[in-house]
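I'm curious: can you give me some protein's one-letter sequence along with its backbone structure tokens because I've never seen that pairing?
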Amino acid sequence: MSETKNTDRNNETAGGQDRPELRAALQEIVGSGFAGVQLRVNDRGREWVGSAGVRKLGESGEPPTDGHFRVGSVTKTLVATVVLRLVAEGVIGLDDPVADSLPGFGLDGRITVRMLLQHTSGVFNFTGEFEPDGTLLPGIPAQGREYVDGLSRTYRPQELVLLALSEPARFEPGTGWSYSNTNYVLAGLLVEEVTGRPLASEMRRLVLEPLGMANTVSPEGSPEIPEPHAHGYYRYEDEGRSKLADVTRMNPSWASSAGDMISTTEDLHTFISALMGGRLLPAPLLAEMRTPHPESGDFRYGLGLFVEDTDCGGTVFHHNGGFAGWAALMYSTPDGGTTLTASLTVGDGELDFAAVAQAFEKAKRRLVAEVFCGGSRTAS
């Protein structure tokens, strides 16, 4: 099912040692309720790829190891990199007020570009916010039948921002931390305003084309996903009955530049290893990107990156992503020498939203432990 590989894209051994612990981890993930998983591990020049589960319910084929998938909030690291590349070019400053470039929204003049990237703006999250007592302050439909019924709807990014700004700010700019998708929709609009070009064009110019990431795309509202790909599913309640929807084809404009991109495990490896290896940003900007803001607490969030200490004493940088039916992982050691990139698709189990999130967290911990702390390997 899964084996070490060098250059071929199939599941045939191409030399090097097998990784039975990774094969076992994939089976455990599928056993926890996911339909399928594909995994790519690059470890100091040696690559291992594998998959488990099924590509599509009702069929026996495993997910393709070169399959495309929706990366969710991994998009944020890509967008943050574009913004920081523009900072390096002198097009914009990290501490410039966002309202100067986007005057039409009535943004608080104290909100800076840096605050968008590190989630310290205080702007409400358009997909909803949880109060400390667990009460949900709703945003656009992101769960249930209303979400499924709206999968073909097109949202304009300006519409998402205005919805968020119709709600009170979470805190004064720069005084707290709260993960808000709205920050990255604003970041995308900012890129377009200061360059005069679509975000997708700047993404290609500054990141995708220099790295040869030909399989990474910004759908820009298209429901299509390139072949090959696995299928993601979403179970929801409708008038007291449990229903299952195939959410593979969907209009991702509701996520906009906070989470709409499509990629592959190979392209995500190419990106995160180049970023961590210093091939995309000047050293001072990369250092800022990797420095967590104090207000982010245990989340340890920098500029589009999470910082995580491993159980074996090392450090990894990452950004994961997920929404109904899909999840993605992207991890790297500080030098980019060891990376973990993966896609998980939700199946037909009776997992509710909270149970899926719990299973995803368990799968993430298992894979990180195996890749960065397994055997004699430690995170650098």
